Amino acid sequence: MSNELSKKIFSLRRKYNLTLEQVADVVGVGKSTVRKWETGMIANMRRDKIALLAKALHTTPAYLMGWEDSTLVVQDINTRIPVFGSVAAGIPIEAITDIEDYEEITEDLARTGEFAALRIKGNSMEPKFSAGDVVIVRLQETADNGDIAIVLVNGDEATCKKIKRTPEGVMLISTNPAYEPMFYSNRDIEEKPVRIWGKVIELRAKF
């Protein structure tokens, strides 16, 4: 197997946040075989496996094998992002292991920042957000008045709330009227701390 092909397999798998197991399942091989393809340890690949591997990596056999100009054959498709069951302060996104599923966003959207998804827990954001729904989140440390954001308070698990800023601090507002707004002073923001994890840009409701 050419070094160029091995690089393409590795690069595409990482681009679409795919595990070795996910690629292996589509192709019908073990994950060790995919690892060997990525490292160039297997010299030949059957044609039917090339087609399945291209499907798993969201591209074409022609691109993988170098039969065409890569600019013409890479498909304009969606990008997979992880759905987390929970996130906590101080843990880099790449180190979070609580991955429950994957969602897809468009390539155009993916180019605007780094994204992840979070599964809603509880009923504090009803009726718009219900327990089990998934929100698509652009990872960023700021949010404007009126934004729905994922917020970390005092290092605890993230919560989804509407942001209202004042000169004295920030208010985290539930859309469920049964829950009182939570106010944090500027001092609280620094000392607890209160940190924005990301801005909610889309709801994927689950029925």
Description:
It is a single chain. With 207 residues, the protein is of the alpha+beta class. It folds into 2 domains: 3-73, 434 Repressor (Amino-terminal Domain) (Orthogonal Bundle); 79-204, Umud Fragment, subunit A (Ribbon). It has 8 helices and 9 strands. A 9-stranded mixed sheet has the order 2-1-3-4-9-5-6-7-8. Helix 2 crosses helix 3 and helix 2 crosses helix 4. The longest helix is centred in the N-terminal third of the chain and has 13 residues, at 3-15. The N and C termini lie far apart (46 Å).
Short description:
With 207 residues, this protein is of the alpha+beta class. The chain has 2 domains: 3-73, 434 Repressor (Amino-terminal Domain) (Orthogonal Bundle); 79-204, Umud Fragment, subunit A. Helix content is 29%, strand content 28%.
Largest sheet: 9 strands, mixed
Q: Could you say which overall geometry the principal axes of the C-alpha atoms support?
A: elongated
- Rounded to the nearest angstrom, the radius of gyration is 21 Å
- Reported CATH architecture of the largest domain: Ribbon
Briefly note the structural class of the backbone. alpha+beta
Relevant CATH superfamily of the largest domain: Umud Fragment, subunit A
Q: Total helix count?
A: 8
CATH topology of the largest domain: Umud Fragment, subunit A
